[in-house]
Predict the 3D structure of the following.
Amino acid sequence: MHQLTIADIIKGLRERQFSSTEITRHLLERIQQQDERYNSFITVTADEALQQAAAADERLAAGDAPAMCGVPIAHKDIFCTSGVRTSCGSRMLDNFVPPYDAAVVESFERAGAVSLGKTNMDEFAMGSSNETSFYGPVKNPWDTNRVPGGSSGGSAAAVAAQLCPGATATDTGGSIRQPAALTNTTGIKPTYGRVSRWGMIAFASSLDQGGPIARSAEDAALMLSVMADSDPRDSTNLQRPSDDFTRDLDQSIQGLRIGVPREYLAEGLNSDTDERVQEALREYEKLGAELVEISLPHTQLAVPAYYVIAPAEASANLSRFDGVRYGHRCENPADLRDLYMRSRGEGFGEEVQRRILVGTYALSAGYYDAYYNKAQQVRRLIKQDFVKAFEQVDVIMGPTAPSPAFKLGEKRADPVSMYLEDIYTIAVNLAGLPAMSLPCGTVDGLPVGLQIIGNYLDEARMLNVAHQYQQATDWHKASAV
Amino acid sequence: MEWEIVIGLEVHVQLSTQSKLFSGASTRFGAAPNTQACAIDLAMPGTLPVPNEEAFRYAVMFGLAMNAEIGKRSVFERKNYFYPDLPKGYQTTQLAEPIVGAGEIEIHLEDGSSKSVRLHHAHLEEDAGKSLHDAVFSEGHGMSGIDLNRAGTPLIEIVSEPDMRSAAEAVAYLRKIHSIVTYLGISDGDMSQGSMRCDANVSVRLKGEEKLGTRTELKNINSFRFVERAIKVEAQRQIDLIEDGGRVVQETRLYDADKNETRSMRSKEVANDYRYFPCPDLLPVELTDEYVDTIRQQLPELPDAKSTRFASEYGLSAYDADQLTQERAVAEFFEAATQHCGQPKLVANWMMGELAALLNREEIAIAQSPISAEQLAGLIERIVDNTISSKIAKQVFEAMANGEGDADAVIEKRGLKQVSDTGAIEKMVDDVIANSAAQVENYRSADEAKRPKMMGYFVGQIMKASKGQANPQVINKILKEKLDALL
């Protein structure tokens, strides 16, 4: 039953092949038995999940079942869940139980989904390997000596290990796509402003965007249809009503123009990874698509610009964690300064502290123009690169990550090499574009991801493009377990 | 050496919106601590701000009233600093692109002169909460309490150019701001509750010097009177310091009203770098011309326009018109009373004389006046129809102020009705003439031109005998006839 996709589960539940309670119980048992190996969950809410499943079964029986009624999923522990500890992977929020639900959590509840629990993540979503979590690293189900990617490593690993068919995630610089690539799952980061950020703990507000990780483009489309909605509580939300992202899945992609940026196949890219991506592109040609070489000339500037803007925003976003109102507070503070210094020093891990320091520095008097302002200028140039490219092509394709999953600890001591993990994903966040990753083969038994970048609000077409590939190939069906 | 004082003011005005600048929590004053702070005000993780449209409307109204440019595009920024009553660790405010740009207003001074003061800009921002230090808690002494009811309340910060040259000018400017915001109804302007707070930047320089002196900033002065005193005492401190060979240090100083002195509040070592940057949770707010024009058309009559109208429509002096239009409530009181009795000049005189003295003595606003506009008009009607003299009217006014009812009731109860009965007055005149042989003799022997003046003595005696109630015109007529008969 754990091998079923979301589409399968929806069908099975409606056809009474099994009940929501049965599949929920099955997955809970599986998590209990197997997750010790992966550490993909921080909190499992078994009792609540079974209650939700029972309620879903009643609605299914009564014939008033909403879209995802009875389907068990998991939420990244960055989404606030009313009454359930929401840690953001940090000691700072180890004791934090929000009194409200994130908009995304509300949406899945309205759609009748069952929440199995909260998935592990890099602390405050800062990381590309899931090694910065206060709750320990997540292990990649394809090789437990390797990282699952990050920051949504828990969501990706849980889906890959078939502990749940889909999970919510967030992507600030690649945090949905890179772990999806490293775990053979399908993940989509929607256009900035598609999915409400209400109740999603902020890392870098102008870049953060929620999205799903699942085992197929179809499942990702089903989840995105639930997640993407207007929300007056989020001023940066595009206020577009929910959409059916499955509607175009079966469209032909004959004549599709695929842009291949020459900058994405440059040095630094693992040659085997490159080969898998080239094979995928040839597959698309077979499906009737046309490859167009394009240039995104400012690609090299994306990582440095991102590592100014994201930490700058984070340095302010994380100021609220001060030990005064909630979260970690140090023992016996001597005075106010001591309260701040020790609460934050103890509550935040090394990577989070590093980024707060970098961001604070970038915004400081005398450095603001050289760093923050300059980075914003670069951001505009990067956006223009994409706008120009989309005058010629329908989608852009390339690798998601430069290489397959690396070993635990391999890059931990070298932040710059870790930051380069996101070299192909970061520009998309700076431009606010939608992008996804889908499996396109393996290298030495480790999955490789193909990235599809779409034009603004073009998620339905991207999912169609991915689905057509998944109809023609079986890479996404390869399982780690 | 002749010194010149240079003053610029930063005035914070709390907008009287129903809810906060970025959350739906109530802004009502005086509720139990932390009962009006929602998850957004508490800066709970994952919460997001949504701008309050009403606050923008108020800010635009203010900008238009200040003859200022309106920022068609305004941007909120984060001002970063740690303090327990600042839950997010930053204040959301405006810096580079404020809602209100440069403007200019006229201020009116007590000597009747006017002066123009330039507005640098005004911006929207959220207020912080309150820290209550050394509060007594069950955990023991030495603790500080945080009340976040005020956190997120919308403010406009109004920044002037350093255009004022005396404490009196600063007060006149502050009164003008107060007058405008209360006219617009965008703030209650209550300084005692912190709805209007003032920081003053003060420096001194030798008269004729172009360069500005080093300024100090006086923080949070909470009454008109203290603004005047604080500036005076700080300017004098700076002058004394320089004359003694010292130098003014740029710093923030606190005015101690009890000791009437200023003292250093923060040392330079902890000077903050606020690391402003545009708030990524809020999009730039773009206003259309139509939006601004609609607000312009809905603006109420403002103090200057009202003053001009009062002068022309009611024949008041420029000074009187100005005094009566500084506060919207005062102007409304004047128009209500005038409408009742049709005597604008008398109403003006009574309001600026007896009524102003009464309110001042009782330290109350006109809204709390024990005598209503209708009651004051009733009193004036009795003066005009000769029921009472102006002198008696003052007695009646005091009685009215003590809650003895309206003018007619007081006159009736106290028997203050003016005596115009010629028989009774004739008798009093005869008595006084009979008892004033010497004065009568003087009158008779005086030049004719001097006689009217000499009548004053007799009138005074008769008024005294009538306890002020005799009609002075009737006295004059009878007295003159009787005295002239003796010539």
The first strand of chain A starts at residue 41 and ends at 44. The mean pLDDT of chain A is 96. The first helix of chain A runs from residue 6 to 14. The domain at 6-255 of chain A is CATH 3.90.1300.10 (Amidase signature (AS) enzymes).
